[in-house]
Amino acid sequence: MNYFVKGNPDLCIGCRTCMIGCVVAHEGAKIFQMKPGEYVFNPKLDIVKTATITIPVQCKHCENPACMNACPVGAIEVIDNAVVVSQNKCIGCKTCMIACPYGAIDMVVSSDGSKQLDGNSRMVANKCDLCTGIEGGPACVRVCPTASLKLVTEEAVETSVSNKRMAAAISLTQVKE
Amino acid sequence: MSMGIPEIENAKLLFIFGYNGADSHPIVARRIIKAKQKGAKLIVVDPRITESARIADMHLQLKGGSNMALVQAIGNVIINEGLADQKFIEDHTNGYEEYKEFVKKYTPEYAEPICHVPAEQIREAARAYAKAETSMILYGMGVCQFAQAVDVVKGLASLALLTGNFGGPNMGIGPVRGQNNVQGACDMGALPNCYSGYQSVTDDAVREKFEKAWGVKLSNKVGIPLTHVPHRVLEEKDEKKKIHAYYIFGEDPAQSDPDLNEIRETLDKLDFVIMQDIFMNKTGLHADVILPSTAWGEHDGIYSACDRGFARIRKAIEPKGDVKTDWEIISLISTAMGYPMHYNNTQEIWDEMRSLTPSFHGATYEKLEALGSIQWPCRDESMEDKGTPYLFTGGKFSHPDGRGKFFATEWRPPCEVESPEYPYSLSTVREVGHYSVRTMTGNCRALANLEDEPGWIQMSPEDCDKLNVKEGELIRVFSRRGSLMTRVLPTERVKPGATYMTYQWWVGACNELTTPYLDPVSNTPESKYCAINLEKINDQAWAEQCIKDSYESIRKNMGIDTAKKEV
């Protein structure tokens, strides 16, 4: 099963530390060393606020990902329980962005500074990769000051389902016919 | 604060009044969330749906500027429904009968049309507040930045007196103060009326003590409040009373004070302005001399949290370039002006201050090292005196007779209200990420990447439809005092007719619009209310260019980047 990061709107205060944590995790220290305007700032999650909800929205890492199925060049694959875009293969066709039912993909200037044939900066698909290959796991989960974000793994789901079944079984014994 | 910040987590009910923790102090907001997780009831009084309001059990979405009416209506319900703590009132307070008589008129039905909060909701909030085992009030600038501010603070304290919510843990009343170390500035006597530890400048014994310690004659008159400076510069006829020079440090009045037009005129009219800060700011543009000082990570000292807690701050890195710490600069200036002043380190300054301040006397560096933090009063140097987590233990108050005093007065509307010409209200607020006047955070790239000039105006979707404006569009905002352009942010979290802007932006500086009216006691300006109008801009491309040019020109005037480019 693919993993995903789940937010709890009862705990989120909308501080956007997760967004900065995300960029720093993916871009590294270079964003603090390069000149402003010469580095890209592309958080892979976005805080959404309505009258009653505040929570970051990011990729659900679907089991049957619409983005992956739609990609014409095979730039999206499942790596280590995460749906990941290979930005070097991406041709910027935006099909995945349209296909994603969660709005979890946007198009950004590639952070490696590479250029297209016409000399413009390359535009590529940008989405959560669960910090694949980054030590310590998803940065958003690590930096959240209210612990409102959790990485949901297969094991966590199994425990949760098993606990709920246990509770359901106990509640059944309390129902008298 | 009468309590300590950690106690927030253990209150049974939090009554949050005009305080938006998530944007002002995320770390305090975390305590509010923990309290809720531990089962505390949350009542939030705020004209906007703040993050705390969103998760509250009850949100009283009052109309801005109606605080006093709501507070007294709650007092009215508590008395009328027999929920007052009669024993606490008899044993520990004065003025209850007068209070009771005064708030008689403030029934929930009387308050409803003023506050735009249903009478029944006021009743429910009053019952919950009075019945909870321990109720804690947290308030912020939504109380203090009105021309009727001190009255509301006393009104809120009266609710705590009425219900016996003083003198024990996890209760009381807490102003969650706006700025970093503003508590410390007040504690150290950076106020016109007191020395360190709130010792009055008009008290002869106190003055003589300081005169003896410092070997100089000191004035026995209260000084001039910060917000009276423009008047004393622009309108004072008596040359002797007029202010001629202004030494400003760690403050940017040309950004943070109301009615910026008047502030700029004041700064330009002064004979001499010194600005002492870590980066260039708007005030610096009007200064004759700029003294560069160290930033928070570059110096040692003591910091006071809003719950009276002293803590050490330590230098993390050596300062770079031609800068000095604030205390070194002050010592050099004082010496140059004929009063030799020399310290080797901050501990010497702290020890001198302690020796002259009985209520802080016990908070030694050694003890701070051992305990991490000490909340004043801490009078004794021995290790037994660990400070005071909460005030008024056992219901003993600071008045000479040891009793708490009730307070009630008539509600007054804000000084400038909506009119046909200016049909919207504007309140200045905070946003998480950018702190105060952005002297620090505007220079932090990741934060600037999230939000940058010219900033936003929060408006209801209804008002956006009415003006035919969309998210991100530039809009003209104007008041009787000034005008600016900013971006439209439609949000369901505000009511129609009310708008909100954060005050740190250089281009979209909302203090161009605000009023200079003050609370008569605290002299704090009414930053939370003024009347404005809004105008759609048809030529968006032109407007975008204006913003860009305006930002570039401010940066150029401040010498940012341009110096490097010209080399």
Give the SSE map.
The complex is a heterodimer of chains A (177) and B (567).
Chain A: E1 4-7, H1 17-27, H2 30-33, E2 46-49, E3 54-57, H3 66-70, E4 76-79, E5 82-85, H4 95-99, E6 106-109, E7 123-126, H5 139-143, E8 149-152, H6 154-173
Antiparallel strand pairs in A: 1-8, 2-3, 4-5, 6-7
Chain B: E1 13-17, H1 21-24, H2 26-37, E2 41-45, H3 51-54, E3 58-60, H4 67-80, H5 86-92, E4 93-94, H6 96-103, H7 108-115, H8 119-131, E5 135-139, H9 141-144, H10 150-162, E6 172-175, H11 182-187, E7 194-195, E8 199-200, H12 204-214, H13 229-234, E9 245-249, H14 253-256, H15 260-269, E10 272-277, E11 289-292, E12 301-304, E13 309-313, H16 326-336, H17 346-355, H18 365-371, E14 374-375, E15 404-405, E16 424-429, H19 445-450, E17 456-459, H20 461-467, E18 474-478, E19 483-490, E20 498-502, E21 530-536, H21 540-558, H22 562-566
Parallel strand pairs in B: 1-2, 1-5, 2-3, 4-15, 5-6, 9-10, 10-11, 16-20, 17-19
Antiparallel strand pairs in B: 7-8, 12-13, 13-14, 16-21, 17-20, 18-19, 18-21
Helix pairs in contact in B: 4-7, 4-8, 4-10, 7-8
InterPro entries (chain A): 4Fe4S_Fe-S-bd, 4Fe4S_Fe_S_CS, RnfB_subfamily
GO molecular function (chain A): 4 iron, 4 sulfur cluster binding; metal ion binding
Protein name (chain A): 4Fe-4S dicluster domain-containing protein
What can you tell me about this protein's structure?
The complex is a heterodimer of chains A (177) and B (567). With 177 residues, chain A is of the alpha+beta class. Chain A has a single domain, classed as 2-Layer Sandwich (Alpha-Beta Plaits). Helix content of chain A is 28%, strand content 18%. Chain A has helices spanning 17-27, 30-33, 66-70, 95-99, 139-143, 154-173; strands at residues 4-7, 46-49, 54-57, 76-79, 82-85, 106-109, 123-126, 149-152. In chain A, the strands form 4 sheets. A two-stranded antiparallel ribbon of chain A has the order 1-8. In chain A, strands 2-3 form a two-stranded antiparallel sheet. The mean pLDDT of chain A is 93. Chain B is of the alpha/beta class. Chain B folds into 3 domains: 5-176, 3-Layer(aba) Sandwich (Dimethylsulfoxide Reductase, domain 2), CATH 3.40.228.10; 182-381, Rossmann fold (3-Layer(aba) Sandwich), CATH 3.40.50.740; 424-557, Beta Barrel (Barwin-like endoglucanases). Helices cover 33% and strands 16% of the residues of chain B. Chain B contains 22 helices and 21 strands. In chain B, the strands form 6 sheets. Chain B has a 6-stranded mixed beta barrel with strand order 16-20-17-19-18-21. A 5-stranded parallel β-sheet of chain B has the order 3-2-1-5-6, sandwiched between helices. In chain B, strand 12 (301-304) and strand 13 (309-313) form a beta hairpin. In chain B, helix 4 (67-80) crosses helix 8 (119-131). The radius of gyration of chain B is 24 Å and the shape is globular. The interface between A and B is medium-sized, with 24 and 23 residues. Chain A: One of its GO terms (molecular function) is metal ion binding. Chain A: Residues 49-80, 81-110, 121-154 form the 4Fe-4S ferredoxin-type domain.
